[in-house]
Specification:
The complex is a heterodimer of chains A (197) and B (293).
Chain A (H helix, E strand, L loop, with lengths): L1 E3 L2 E3 L16 H4 L14 H5 L19 E5 L6 H6 L3 E7 L8 H10 L9 E6 L5 H20 L7 H31 L7
Antiparallel strand pairs in A: 1-2, 3-4, 4-5
Chain B lengths: L3 H12 L36 H4 L15 H4 L14 E6 H9 L11 H6 L11 E7 L11 E4 L1 E2 L1 H9 L3 E4 L4 H8 L1 H6 L12 H7 L11 H15 L12 H4 L17 E3 L4 E3 L4 H8 L1
Classes of the chains: A alpha+beta (197), B alpha/beta (293).
Family (chain B): Belongs to the universal ribosomal protein uL15 family.
Protein name (chain B): Large ribosomal subunit protein uL15m
Keywords (chain B): Ribonucleoprotein, Ribosomal protein
């Protein structure tokens, strides 16, 4: 049975079994997809090719089943809506037992984000940026990815010339400061009564 | 036994198309073009009237209204309206509204939802003649949206796509050219015209990019890329992507229209006869070729 605009058509099989295929059907526009099944939205292949993290590299993939998401009420003004609707998102996972992060990454995260880690070892990311729960969840995912990406970055070591330059400039500044101090001291002494022995 | 005249008339009736305005023509000699008057009774003013700019061939410029501010000068140019006659507008449809329709049984989720189904609820009005392109999905109320459906709209934002896919549904954005949209919006009125279902035309240049983009789940986008984008969106919005192929309604969820199709289950070229409850399909090979192109 097919429903078109509310009328029921009595014919059971209206289209031929192959279905109507015009010259601009997806098979014709994308012929290379014929190897995969034509039923779209194939998630299986994606899951099989999941990106892996090795060393300090982070692919950006966060497994949602290994992470706890809790919803609570947000802060700030908003009347009845903010009092009742759970729009704040709390995303946490136990850092040490996270197998989707390499040990080096975990070390770096612990070092860098000590403040976001609870006493029990859970890394917590929260967001109540928008009025929508789902958008806040997207924000927490973004924040978490940012944290992990920051952990992968090692700041570059300054060059020998830069270190030398800074040292010379620092010492010159110290010398200048002491010189000014001595000058001021002489001025102040000059205002005192002369000391006659 | 009918006379030859009657037989001929009936055979003509069988062959010729329905009488319509564009089929009519006056008998030869019925319409006479107006000619310039020359001599005796076409004489004296020779069809030019008396005095004035008409007789003296010194006409006022087009649009001149004898001194008052003419219509074409009254309204200043507004850059805001530049090109507005070429742009389409869409009827907004919130996720919250959709959820309400489903909860109150005004919309069925066991069949694919497209423009026709949404208008059949009776709550929306899409006017293709006023340059409306169809429905646009808005994310107002997407937090409490929890229906699994196969949805086809004309415009959808990223957050609305995530809301539908999170619940195991399938969303596609498809373009309907004005004639196809008129048919889709009121199918019964269209079928009463007795015309063959037309082929849906491709989008215009300014919209082709939108409908071939997998991020918008365009109906002309590469299915492989669409699958990739589904995965990426699930990662962005933080949900586990359910596979519609594993759901019990997989046949309904994965049903897709061909880019040239307007109605589910009906092909271009078919004539739906409501009084006889019959569908007439073309047999001529040229016609068949045309409707498959």
């Amino acid at each position: 049975m097919n429903y078109v605009g509310g009328i029921t058509t009595r014919h059971v099989s209206i289209t031929n079994k192959a279905g109507y295929k015009s010259c601009i059907s997806l098979d014709k526009i994308y012929p290379n997809n014929n190897n995969n099944n034509n039923n779209n939205n194939n998630n299986d292949t994606n899951i099989r090719q999941l990106p892996k993290n090795e060393g300090l590299n982070f692919s950006g993939y966060i497994p949602m089943d290994k992470v706890e998401v809790k919803y609570c009420r947000s802060s700030g003004p908003g009347g009845q809506n903010v009092n009742k609707v759970n729009t704040k998102v709390d995303l946490r996972f136990h850092l040490h037992s996270a197998d989707w992060l390499s040990p080096q990454l975990k070390e770096k995260l612990e070092e860098k984000y000590k403040g976001s880690i609870t006493g029990e070892g859970y890394l917590v990311v929260r967001s109540d940026r928008t009025r929508s729960q789902q958008l806040n969840l997207a924000d927490t995912m973004d924040k978490l990815r940012l944290m992990v990406n920051n952990a992968t970055i090692t700041p570059p070591q300054p060059s020998y010339e830069a270190v030398e330059r800074n040292r010379r400039r620092h010492e010159a500044a110290v010398r200048e400061r002491l010189r000014q101090k001595r000058e001021r001291s002489l001025t102040k002494q000059g205002r005192k009564e002369p000391q006659y022995i | 036994m009918a006379s030859r005249g009657t037989e001929k008339a009936l055979s003509l009736l069988r062959r010729l198309p329905r009488v319509e305005l564009h089929n009519l023509k006056p008998n030869p000699g019925a319409h006479k073009n107006k000619t310039r008057g020359r001599g005796i009774h076409g004489g004296k003013t020779h069809g030019a009237g008396s005095k004035g700019s008409g007789q003296r061939q010194n006409f006022m410029r087009l649009g001149y209204e004898t001194g008052n501010n003419p219509f074409y000068l009254r309204f200043p140019c507004q850059n805001y309206y530049k090109g507005h006659h070429l742009k389409l507008s869409y009827v907004p449809l919130c996720m919250g509204q959709l959820q309400k329709l489903i909860d109150t049984n005004r919309l069925r989720t066991d069949i694919p939802i497209d423009v026709s189904q949404l208008i059949y609820t009776g709550l929306f009005n899409v006017k293709p003649l006023e340059k409306e392109g169809g429905f646009m999905l808005q994310d107002d109320g997407m937090d409490h949206f929890c229906a699994t459906l196969n949805l086809e709209v004309q415009w959808a934002s990223e957050s609305t796509i995530s809301a539908v896919e999170r619940n195991g549904g399938v969303i596609t954005t498809a373009y309907y050219d004005p004639m196809s949209l008129e048919a889709a919006v009121d199918p019964i009125r269209f079928f009463k015209r007795g015309k063959a279902i037309p082929r849906r035309m491709l989008p215009p240049q300014n919209l082709i990019e939108y409908y071939t983009d997998p991020k918008n789940r365009g109906y002309l986008a590469d299915p492989k890329l669409v699958a990739q984008e589904r995965f990426n969106l699930a990662q962005k919005y933080g949900y586990q992507l359910p596979d519609p192929r594993e759901s019990p309604h997989r046949h309904m969820l994965l049903e897709k229209k061909d880019p040239r199709q307007i109605f589910y289950g009906l092909e271009p070229g078919w004539v739906v006869s409501l009084p006889d409850s019959v569908i007439l399909k073309p047999t001529d090979p040229e016609l068949k070729e045309h409707y498959l192109s």
